[in-house]
Amino acid sequence: MAIEHELETIDLHINVGPQHPATHGVFRMILTVDGEKVVDCDPVIGYMHRGAEKLSENCDYRQAIGYQDRTEYLAQFNAEWTYCLAVEKLMGLQVPERAEYIRVILGELNRVASHLMFMGAFGTDVGFFGTPFMYAFREREVIQDFFEAITGERMMYNYFRPGGVAWDVPPDFVEQCRYVVNHVRRGVEELDALMTDNEVFMARCRGLSPVTPEQAINWGFSGPMLRACGLKHDLRRAEPYSIYDRFDFEIPTGTQGDVYDRYLVRMEEMKQALRIVEQALEQMPPHGPIMAEGLKRTIRVPPGEVYARTESPRGEYGVYLVSKGGDKPWRLKIRSAAFSNLSALKNLVVGNYVADAIIILGSIDIVLCEVDR
Amino acid sequence: MIGDNAWLDAFVRILAIAAGVPVAVIVLNYLERKVVGRIQNRLGPMRVGPYGTLQAVADTIKLLTKEDVRPTTADRWAFELAPYVVVVPTIVAMAALPFTQDLWVRNLGLALFFILAVSTVSIVGFLMAGWGSDNKYAILGAMRSAAQLISYEIPLVMAAVAVAMVAHVDGGRGSLNLIEIVEGQGRVPYLIWQPLAFFIFTVAAVAELYRQPFDIPVAESEVVGGPLVEYSGMRWAMFMMGEYVNLVLLSVLASLVFLGGWNWPLGDEVGPALQVPLMVIKVSAFILFFFWVRAALPRLRIDQLMAYSWQVLLPLAFYQIVVNGLALVYEWPDVALGALSAVGTMVAIYLTYKAVRRPVRRPAPVTQRVEV
After folding, report:
1. Do B366 and A199 count as a contact with CB atoms less than 8 A apart?
2. What pTM was estimated for this model as a whole?
3. Which of A304, B100, B116, B200 has its CA 20 to 30 A from that of A238?
4. Per the domain annotation, does A10 fall within a domain?
5. A128 touches chain B (CB under 8 A)
6. Predicted ipTM beyond 0.90
7. Angle ∠(A352,A356,A362) on CA atoms, nearest 5
């Protein structure tokens, strides 16, 4: 009589994070793997939660700007901008022309810096031995030096104010900025040449975790994650805030919605952002006010509620602001693109290999401070 | 034999290996950091010693003085012996490796076989490290390294065998003696007559060395060092040493078997004064190639790596062996051999190209639709 032996196997749980080189901060995903295949993924967030929203409610309207920097620490200008837009909408402030141009230039350069950070980190995730990281950071450093020259800070700029910007830019702003744009453009092209056509890179990224446009909308994607699926939705075009209707730029979209498309969209977005900066430098008035008129030192916002949203490098960054009068926000809610994009992680990861789970997580381009707030 | 004393002779030869290997590792470590640094727009080590030349020495001292940590739940013997099992075979294999016509430790008749067989043992060490560490990343990495080495050892051996089959020796063909293989190449290295074997050997060698794009078992961003994750201090350094010794081993082997070793195309009789620089140049070229590939390529996935090995490299290695066998039976000239092998190389490159540029699968349609 034949005895059938059945080997008892159990799935292996792997704790990726919160201290893991590929989690970009303190994100944790509990992977259940069967061999090399992921059968379940349980994302755990909250390690970086500091209550930025609640803290903002205890600061006056200018102090709260700093929390925006700390929330979205790779695209600080974009976050500040959204917050300022919300306050300006409630107060009905008219931002001077020159300040708008400064905001566009800094915001777009910040987009490039954020995407460069993505390129470096993503390259490391895919398995490069740090080469794209070094290439990307060399360019990012130029941008950061430029920001430092303007704001005096390398990370927490705290430069945009409701009604304009905090102080005027240095006299050689345009020349400096042109140098930065030219330098970064060359660097982006080098990075493009290093990664985009790399056969191994393509073999890893193409066709990985494709997302249909319907799924993308259902899961609340925005930004490059959404555009990679082929949906041409960019808030700078869809509802032009600030002065974005004056610039000529393309909205890159992908076709498959896979990891490679997400990468390509970001690569192209950097080039388009530099185009916008160049146009803004052409059009920018050389002199003029940089702050709305009639603003007191302490801002008092009339009662009401408002939702302002902008296209941050990771997608739709929104600030929902409720004021009951007075000098402090009554409620401040941040709509984080990274959080919405990350929430689909399980759908994207399950069924793929462990190695791919890392790449997929990298392709979402999360900023944990923004997710946890 | 030195001084007609077998013991003294053995002692000197062992000393040569034992002293040479760590020095080579330290030099290579420094060179790799410098070369990769330059590729990445950095300077590399610059602080310790002039141009950072003493950095690797300083790191060695640091590793020597570091605490040797062993997880309490680790399997003690497997964990502590694993580094030796990795590093000893590679050093033993060095003993059979000729560096020039007269500079070798042992001239074995089966040198090629011996080297390939002995250096494979190190896989056991990786499995022991992965199992003994009692760490999930480590066991995942160990399983990957086992799968990878089994897949790539076969094409590597096949490519070497193909050359050994047709190696010219006095009065016939076929030899496993590395010195005979080198002597048989003369002015034209086997790279010309066996390009396919060279291609397969090089790709498999990168996989053997756990270097990008085949650093899957130790993938830093996935399994955080794989089997090495729990090691510290000198035990960790021994894994690194094994890696660098393997790098030298495979580079020298490839130079001997495929690039004609100490021969060159400009003359038949090469004196010892020229043999050393010729070997240094050839071996350095290989080592630099490995450094360059490491800095320029990302990592493959384990299934892609296996598929590439079993579906592309292995059939083509068999093709090379069949062609060489036919050449032996029907006494084809080397030119015919080279042409057939070149055709195989074209096929290999085409298949590699097709594998990465395959059309992308469309995402499956979803049933649940929403209004845009």
Report:
1. no
2. 0.87
3. A304
4. no
5. yes
6. no
7. 130
